[in-house]
Amino acid sequence: MLYIIIAVLVFGILVATHELGHFLSAKLLGVKVNEFAVGMGPALLKWGKGETLYSLRALPIGGFCAMEGEDDDSADPRSFGRASWWRKIIILCAGAAMNFLTGLAVLLVLNSQSPGFAMPAVAGFMEGYGLEECGLLPGDLVVSVDGRRMYSMFGYNRLTSALSRSGDSADWVVERNGERISLKNVSMPRQARVDEEGRPTNYRGLNVGLGWQEATTGRRLLYSWYDAVDLVHVVWESLGSLIRGQVGLRELSGPVGIVDMMGQVGSDPQLSPTPLAAARNLADLAALIAVNLAVMNLLPLPALDGGRVFFLALNGVLYSLFRKKIDAKYEGYVHLAGLAALMCLMLAVTLSDVGKLFGR
């Protein structure tokens, strides 16, 4: 139960952090903010400072930043609707940027205590495949394959994925004895064979594993950035799987599923044998969720920040070509329809999450 409560608080903090990005950028760029709230529901505490009302609300599930003229026309010259297009884009993107920076900050804290980093490495070669003279050596740390960077957190999976996609040869960059080496057109074709038990195989003959790289201050900073960027790749690949139909509704998770997953990870004695391990695992998940929120909010879909940025860009193109813009009323209808569709999707995912909870 403790970890579920922590998960709810973490999720709420991440959403509130998103709104904080909108708030700080609006203040910085001179757009009037009527209210900034931490939490949702009835207000527990309110206080005013300058033109903005600040509130702490009862439900720790997010927050909001209410800007003047954000959803309606306002004559106030400092309203959001009357701000220049570049100010609007910065304010709209600032929430996602804050989520990404939050994920990066969490990874920096986690990596600050790491003595080193596990990296994908060449573990050796299968006998008879003729790779001994290919240029790679056992113990080489893999930096990239065909330009695809092998980041520390998910490097092993990315390496196996890159090998599955590459042709008979690939360009490798490896680190050997602290020196970075580029190897062009490393030949490693698949070979159809039969193993000792008579089963057909189709291997390249390369064994991959994990190597170790000692941590320095520079590497901690660098690999924290790599990890954050790689989380973006994870989200994109997940979206690609969803679009291609490789992932169904049953595999999606909303807030209920995420909180349940974090509760399980924190309380599972095998995954989290100690409170410190539980805290680290929850922090890893928090970083993933933060980056996920950043990417999802910038998708060019109605009702999301990315959708509003898309309409700003579209209006800019239309105005430059025809001196006309899409009527704000019709844009509002599109965002309203998008919000309704998003709410229906969230309801379906939530019902699926609840079904999975009761189905266990």
How many helices does DSSP assign? 8
Main sheet, how many strands, which sense, barrel?
Answer: 4 strands, antiparallel
| Overall morphology | globular
- The structure class reads alpha+beta
Radius of gyration (CA) equals 25 Å
Low confidence ranges: none
* Residue fraction in strands: 15-25%
> What is the spatial order of strands in the main beta sheet?
5-4-6-7
Average pLDDT reading: 85
End-to-end gap: 17 Å
| Helix-residue proportion | 40-55%
How many strand segments? 10
* Order of H and E elements: HEEHEEEHEEEEEHHHHH
Which features would summarize this protein structure in a list?
360 residues; alpha+beta; four-stranded antiparallel sheet; two-stranded antiparallel sheet; 8 helices; 10 strands; 49% helix
Plain-language structure description:
It is a single chain. The protein has 360 residues and is α+β, with helices and mostly antiparallel strands. The chain has helices at 2-28, 85-111, 155-165, 217-243, 255-267, 275-297, 305-322, 328-359, and strands at 33-49, 52-67, 116-125, 141-145, 148-149, 169-176, 179-187, 191-194, 200-203, 206-214. Strands 5-4-6-7 form a four-stranded antiparallel beta sheet, with helices on one face. The chain is globular, with a radius of gyration of 25 Å. The mean pLDDT is 85.
